[in-house]
Design goal:
The protein is an alpha+beta fold and about 400 residues long. About 65% of the residues lie in helices and about 10% in strands. The chain has eleven helices and five strands, in the order αααααααααβαββαββ. The longest helix has about 90 residues. It catalyses: ATP + protein L-histidine = ADP + protein N-phospho-L-histidine.
Length: about 400
């Protein structure tokens, strides 16, 4: 008997239990044969022959893979074992003890309701055999088979419960290992993206801005000098070199742009974000005339939208949400509004918001000179808004 599914290898405990069941059944058959011979039973030959036949049928089923894979094959095998056991019980009262290992076989190989029915039938057969051989009705004739069946049922059900718990823990451990690997990969990806964003900001705010300033100064110097001045040609070449290097710096900034912004505008990236959000229905809209934004602005607005929408999905319990990108003359505003359960912003400590990520969003906005606000009340939904002033060059 195998107490584990065929697809999984047997554990040491399962092997021991299976060997104990085999030994118990064969030992009881040997005991019945020995008692028949020692007691000069007139049916000793039948007892020995039926015991040997029962052992052979049992061994054939144990070694047959189909018995462990098919409920139909297991049922046929148990029917054969039961028929031989019933014949043994008819000629020897000692056959009653074989009922105990049969209980375990029936409970293991059959579905629970059929297993319980088979145990009840086996117990009734054992009681009937004992009464037929003893010729008298005693409490022991009923208590022995019934208690044995009850012990077998309790043991098998308890073991199955422990096995299911063990399987759940194994699956949980495997899930935790997989989640840990995914988290590590996500952290590496987030670190790469964060470094790309940092480099893009640094190049844009320092190198690109410096080259742009140099170009403007050279242009002013070129205009201030007479056209035939010897230095004009050198200034023009320097301005062209600054222009080429500025274009190269901007190409670097574009190459470091997050993947969500590589194949379209900020509005397109936000549209994809809303359409792919799980949980609540999310609508995206654009107000005002769209205009190109510096890469750091697009990255900051996209990351804030992602973080705010993630909070809506995980914490708000909202049915609907809306993201609005508004372009104005001197600023751009992003609003994320939901109809969820809301919370008390005054009770959210900086850096200890329990997973809402508000300090990170606020830091992104303030790093670009923007304003970040949160409006919410318990049961009234939440509105997150960030406003970034547009630079003159944008």
């Amino acid at each position: 008997m195998s107490a584990a599914p065929p697809s999984r290898p047997l554990t040491p405990v399962t092997r021991v239990l299976r060997l104990c069941l085999h030994a118990l059944l064969l030992g009881l058959l040997a005991l019945a044969s020995a008692r028949a011979v020692a007691g000069s039973d007139p049916h000793a030959g039948w007892v020995i022959g039926l015991s040997a036949l029962l052992a052979a049928v049992y061994a054939a089923g144990v070694r047959a893979p189909a018995v462990h894979r098919s409920a139909r094959a297991a049922g046929l095998w148990l029917a054969g074992v039961g028929a031989v056991w019933a014949a043994l019980l008819a000629v020897s009262p000692d056959g009653i003890w074989v009922a105990f290992p049969l209980y375990f076989l029936e409970l293991h190989l059959l579905r629970l309701r059929w297993g319980l029915a088979a145990v009840a039938v086996t117990a009734c057969a054992a009681i009937g055999g004992f009464l037929a051989h003893s010729g008298s009705v005693t409490p022991g004739a009923f208590l022995g088979p019934l208690l044995g069946g009850a012990v077998a049922v309790a043991t098998v059900l308890g073991y199955q419960a422990l096995y299911r718990e063990s399987e759940r823990r194994r699956e949980l451990i495997e899930e935790l290992i997989a989640t840990r690997a995914e988290l590590a990969a996500a952290e590496r990806g987030a670190g790469i993206l964060a470094e790309r964003e940092r480099l893009a900001r640094e190049i844009h705010d320092t190198l690109a801005q410096g080259l742009s300033s140099i170009q403007l100064l050279l242009r002013a110097a070129e205009r201030a000098l007479p056209e035939d001045a010897p230095a004009v040609e050198h200034i023009a070449r320097a301005r062209e070199a600054a222009q080429e290097n500025l274009a190269e710096a901007r190409r670097f900034v574009r190459a470091l742009t997050p993947p969500d912004l590589e194949h379209g505008s900020l509005a397109a990236a936000l549209e994809r974000l809303c359409s792919g959000a799980p949980g609540p229905r999310v609508r995206f809209s654009v107000s005002g005339a769209p205009r190109p934004l510096p890469t750091p602005y697009e990255v900051a607005l996209l990351r804030i939208a992602q973080s705010a929408l993630a909070n809506v999905v995980r914490h708000a319990g909202a049915g609907r949400a809306e993201i609005t990108l508004t372009f104005m003359d001197s600023s751009v505003t992003l609003d994320v509004v939901d109809d969820g359960r809301g919370f008390d912003p005054a009770g959210v400590a900086a850096g200890g918001d329990g997973g809402f990520g508000l300090p990170a969003m606020r830091a992104r906005a303030e790093s670009l000179g923007g304003l970040f606000t949160v409006e919410s009340d318990p049961g009234q939904g939440t509105a997150v808004a960030v406003t970034l002033p547009l630079p003159v060059e944008a």
